[in-house]
Amino acid sequence: MKPLLLALAAVIALPALAQSQVRQAQVYRCGPDGRDLRDSPCPGSPATSGGSIRYDEPSAADSRAARERHLADARQAAALAAARRASEAEARHQRALSLGLQPPPAAASAPQVVHIKPPKVAKPARPHRPEAAASAAR
Q1: In this structure, what are the phi and psi dihedrals at residue 20, rounded to the nearest 5 degrees?
Q2: Helices first, then strands: H and E counts in the chain
Q3: Which residues sit opposite 51 in a β-bridge?
Q4: 28 pLDDT tier (thresholds 50, 70, 90)
Q5: For residues 80 and 74, is the Cβ–Cβ distance under 8 A?
Q6: Does 14 or 111 have the greater pLDDT score?
Q7: E-only strand ranges, the chain
């Protein structure tokens, strides 16, 4: 039982080890409590020795795979959003039909601008001029 567990643990751990590269960096702690981390010796105290920090850096293949997963997720999210919008539009259409309302006109690619004309104001009548009517009759 124990060798089986060790073999299983090794199989699970191997891909994790293969996916990243372990690197080291020289770090110098400066400041009053050593909270200022630098990659070069502290100014004013050349006797300070630096310590090393180990960190994992993903391999190029892992970075590429993560980028591809991100793009695939973004495409899937866009497709799901478009499907949701289409479903909501269909639901609005069905609801309008069930209420006996006319469905809204198909949306154009750009919103249409409607200009409303102001109401016409009646012009005041011009006073009647008798001499103008007499001269027109001649």
Answers
A1: -135, 155
A2: 3, 3
A3: 27
A4: confident
A5: no
A6: 111
A7: 20-30, 36-38, 51-58
